[in-house]
Amino acid sequence: MINQFRKLNPINLVLLLGYAFFMRISIFLELPAKLNFDFFEPFARLLINVPIGNSLSPTANICIATIFIYIQALIFNSVINNHNLLAKTSFLPGLMFVTGTSLFMPFMVLSPALLCNFLLIWIIDKFLKLGKTANSVTMVFDIGMIIGIGTLMYFPFVAMLLMIFLSLLLFRPFNWREWISGLVGFITIFFFLAVWYYWNDNLTLFYKIWKPLGNKFPSVFTINYKDYLSLVPVSIIILLASLQLRENFFRSFINTRKAFQLLFFMFLIAGASFYLKPDFRLWHFLLCVAPAAVILAYYFSNAKKRWFYETLFVLFVLSVQYFLFV
């Protein structure tokens, strides 16, 4: 299967869609009684309220989520190929993205984090363009606005503001206008929200939006390790990819090295931002899938022994399915 997706063959479009539904067999066989989700955070519903999310049947919810993930995988695949982050262009980034979004049941339903992944892929593309742009002030402003929109949908997305400064450090010489423009873009979105709160005499509630930013990072975690055994094969592949990346790191183009550093920090920030949502759900970690998928795709793109990488991927898929069913 890996060898098939190493090629940019149009038939992979059909295979990827079939694979996306195949990886969701478990949830289709055991449909939840009811699935609800909100497009926007409670503080944004005063401005925009989309009630359709609670009127979908479980089957429709999962099917729409699968189609969204398929579209994201294609967009993500195109972004990674356009920036030449792998050895050659392929469908592997899309394949790994679909696989990553199938690790846990909560990943398979509509959620704010799933919708934010559209924005995350968009800003990944813009971040990777920073080093190739003569004047990036406008681009950084756009990134700030995109992060602002994402924060309206899911508040922990605000943590991506840190990625603006990290990307500027990696890709650009210091320019204070660029550093300010990202914040201005973000503030622009919330300026309109603040005005709406003011018009509705709720300005005092607007300040409460930012209370989670004062949360302390939790020092104690309650984890049922059996629920996360499916991450073992992922960790093994990431370890193999890291060793391979380390071996080839200084042979790669400078922009490619910087891109992998950027994605590594994005993975950490996306994962750690869960503390900004006291009642966060497991689907929060969908925000980690895109940067992790690049690492997985890097390994399978550069692996030499076909029998080994094909077997490894089959075992990976089978282990995911096993833990989903049990």
UniProtKB/TrEMBL annotation:
UniProt keywords, alphabetically: Membrane, Monooxygenase, Oxidoreductase, Transmembrane, Transmembrane helix
Transmembrane segment boundaries: 12-29, 59-79, 91-124, 144-171, 178-199, 228-247, 259-276, 282-300, 307-325
Family matches, as InterPro entries: DUF6427 (IPR045625)
Keyword Oxidoreductase: yes
Molecular functions (GO terms): monooxygenase activity
Keyword Transmembrane helix: yes
The protein, known as: Beta-carotene 15,15'-monooxygenase
Organism the protein comes from: Pedobacter changchengzhani
Lineage per the UniProt record: Bacteria, Pseudomonadati, Bacteroidota, Sphingobacteriia, Sphingobacteriales
